[in-house]
Write a structure and sequence with these properties.
Elements: E1 3-8, E2 11-15, H1 20-31, E3 36-39, H2 50-63, E4 71-77, H3 84-92, E5 96-101, H4 121-130, E6 134-136, H5 150-165, E7 171-173, H6 179-187, E8 192-196, H7 199-202, H8 205-209, H9 226-237, E9 243-245, H10 254-257, H11 272-282, H12 289-301, E10 309-318, E11 323-326, E12 329-332, E13 340-345
Parallel strand pairs: 2-3, 3-4, 4-5, 5-6, 6-7, 7-8, 8-9
Antiparallel strand pairs: 1-10, 10-13, 11-12
Helix pairs in contact: 3-4
This protein binds N-carbamoyl-L-aspartate and zinc ion (ZN).
N-carbamoyl-L-aspartate binds at residues 16, 42, 107-109, 137, 219-220, 248, 250, 264-265.
């Protein structure tokens, strides 16, 4: 029996598109299935000002193949020198939909991130005033904090204090990886949401380390113990509107992944929706898929749900390419480790 599921066209609330040849290669992988995405600003140099975001948006639209529709939702990279008035102007013009907070040194291309949170207080206050969300990479970077504890410690030491001292600030905890993250969101009713990636619903830390090191499963925040993966699956499939999809699809060339000091990031744009359909089916929650991929995110950001739809059809195994070819080299597509049975059509 074929089973089909038609849902409002999804959005990706956390995506890395890069620039130049990489942008041209990865953009169609997202635009094929997604209408919009929150575009991460961690280019080198980062997208810091409204003018830089406008120029980056133009480069993204210029890279979109003819006949494809896609709306990039731009973000600004928060630095200690960010000007609150520039942020407000970029938001009020409709160009910028969020500001991204990277603790300095937390992840790929985050060297310009924030060290002293007091220095960004005027920006956060302006954002609270105008209702512009702060997207947070929630990991401390202190050397004495174990990498597997960095999210939980961030919540206590940084996130909760920021939220208490900036009432009304709307925050997205991005790519949560722990039960602690899930619990923190659930304990706070207003102004707080969280994105969950596809890969963190599929892998735990054993997938990275058991039987040989698997560089293509290494991302930040790093996947945690199984109990945390199960908490994420429960949150994503629960129908709770505070949780929505942000794939964090983060392409790096194989040369940069398969090396002595490999980059963090899983590239999931290509097969994300087939994987998610399977995860939600396994959890007996297919009726919650549309909320997670297509409705909760727009509700948080105050944007309309997309008018278009996609249809997922369950049938024979669906094959995706193992790698995509880019002008910078090959990029490996995330391997969920199981056969996929849901195909996607527009
Ligand atoms: C991201 C990247 O490659 O830009 N990497 C990752 O592992 N997720 C940065 C990020 O979102 O942390
Ligand atoms: Zn990311």
């Amino acid at each position: 029996m074929t089973q089909t599921l038609t849902i409002a066209r999804p959005d990706d609330w956390h995506l890395h598109l890069r620039d130049g040849a990489m942008l041209r290669a990865v953009l169609p992988e997202t635009a094929r299935h997604f209408a919009r995405a929150i575009i991460m600003p961690n280019l080198v140099p980062p997208v810091v000002t409204g003018a830089q975001a406008a120029a980056y948006r133009d480069r993204i639209l210029a890279a979109l193949p003819a006949g494809m529709a896609f709306e990039p939702l731009m973000t600004l990279y928060l630095t200690e020198d960010t000007d609150p008035e520039d942020v407000a102007a970029a938001a009020q013009s409709g160009l910028v939909k969020a500001v991204k907070l990277y603790p300095a040194g937390a992840t790929t291309n985050s060297a310009s991130g924030v060290r002293d949170f007091n220095r960004v207080r005027p920006v956060l206050e302006k954002m609270a005033e105008i209702g512009l969300p702060l997207c947070v990479h929630g990991e401390v970077t202190d050397n004495d904090i174990d990498i597997f504890d960095r999210e939980a410690v961030f919540i206590d030491r940084v996130l909760d204090p920021i939220r208490r001292t900036t009432p009304g600030l709307r925050v997205v905890m991005e790519h949560i990886t722990t039960r602690d993250g899930v619990d923190y969101v659930k304990a706070n009713d207003t102004d707080l949401g969280a994105t969950i990636t596809t890969h963190h619903l599929v892998i735990n830390r054993n997938h990275i380390l058991v039987g040989g090191i698997k560089p293509h499963y290494y991302c930040l925040p790093v996947a945690k113990r199984e109990e945390h993966r199960l908490a994420l699956r429960a949150a994503a499939t629960s129908g709770d509107a505070r949780f929505f999809l942000g794939t964090d699809s983060a392409p790096h060339t194989d040369a940069n992944k398969e090396t002595a000091c490999g980059c963090a990031g899983c590239f999931t744009a290509t097969n994300t929706l087939s994987i998610l359909a399977q995860v939600f089916e396994e959890e007996n929650a297919l009726d919650s898929l549309e909320g997670f991929t297509s409705r909760h995110g727009p509700a948080f950001y105050g944007l309309p749900v997309n008018e278009g739809t996609i249809t997922l059809t369950r049938g024979d195994a669906v094959n995706y390419p193992a790698k995509i070819i880019t002008g910078e080299g090959e990029v490996t597509v995330f391997d969920p480790g199981f056969a996929l049975h849901w195909s996607v059509s527009a």
